[in-house]
Write a structure and sequence with these properties.
GMP Synthetase, Chain A, domain 3, Rossmann fold, seven-stranded mixed β-sheet, four-stranded mixed β-sheet, 9 helices
Length: 277
């Protein structure tokens, strides 16, 4: 759609270089543009605003996700200048601030998959919970569970509290501001039947804390791993499984499954492994 829309503004060689995919978060569009086309970034932004009827704002991503809070630099291109929006997913509503918190709409299917695995009366620790997307969907789909949503970003922790109230699950989604390892050690040791680790760049550093959160060190851990290099998705899953086995090598465990969550670059994959301790 984007290439068709830009056909009258770009020559064929430029169209070949344009990224056809972009993130749509509520009514905000975030896109990437190759360096060689940055001189036409405003034309591209205006075109998206015209062609995507639900879009009200367009931003250019000017850096990779980085830092402890996994934020990306953004440049305003077109439409309303705002960074807050409401995003809807699987019957839930989320307030998002794209400038101050990490959020990806591309994990929608994975959030639903994990939520469907939760059993009645589970206690769940989400070690890197962000604005509460995983946690709130789980609580909406299973009214008998409790989810502890940890994040070290004060903006994310506050938005999680807001979103829990927005979705009427504030009694079962508990937002905790702090470092995940410290919170587990001081507040949640031995509390949980299931642990989520959706921080693929650094999840390996927190394996011992994830195990500590489990009751009697037994339960399910959803271990996300980034930057698996492979020729295709099937091989990416195999490499992801090896990474998970290595991460949990000091614990008695069973690898229930490993799957590719998404492709993050050419032959570069993000995976998730369901690990039973």
């Amino acid at each position: 759609m984007l290439k068709d829309a830009l056909a009258s503004h770009l020559v064929p060689s430029e169209l070949d270089m344009i990224f056809s995919a972009f993130d749509m978060i509520g009514d905000i569009v975030i896109l990437k543009i190759p360096d060689c086309l940055l001189k036409k970034k405003n034309i591209i932004g205006d075109t998206i605003l015209t062609k995507v009827k639900t879009a009200k704002s367009v931003f250019l991503q000017t850096s990779a996700v980085k830092g402890d809070f996994r934020l990306r630099n953004l440049e305003y291109l077109a439409g309303e200048y705002k960074t807050e929006t409401e995003y809807k997913e699987h019957g839930c509503r989320f307030k998002v601030d794209i400038a101050n918190v990490y959020f990806s709409p591309r994990l929608s299917s994975e959030r639903l998959r994990v939520a469907q695995l939760v059993r009645n009366n589970e206690v769940i620790t989400n070690m890197f919970g962000g604005i509460g997307t995983f946690s709130i969907l789980i609580a909406k789909m299973n009214k008998t569970c409790t989810v502890y949503n940890i994040d070290s970003n004060v903006h994310a922790a506050n938005l999680c509290k807001f979103n829990a109230k927005l979705n009427k699950v504030q009694d079962r989604v508990i937002s905790i501001l702090g470092d995940a390892a410290h919170v587990v050690e001081t507040e949640l040791s031995g509390s949980s039947h299931r642990v989520l680790m959706p921080l693929p760049e650094r999840a390996s550093e927190f394996v011992s804390s994830a195990v500590e959160a489990l009751t009697d060190h037994k339960g399910i851990i959803h271990f996300f791993f980034a930057h698996v290099t492979a020729r295709n998705k099937k091989l990416g899953s195999s490499e992801g499984a090896l990474s998970a086995k290595n991460a949990f090598k000091n614990y008695e465990h069973t690898l229930l499954q490993t799957k590719v969550v998404r492709e993050v670059g050419p032959r570069l994959y993000q995976t998730v492994s369901d690990v039973q301790l």
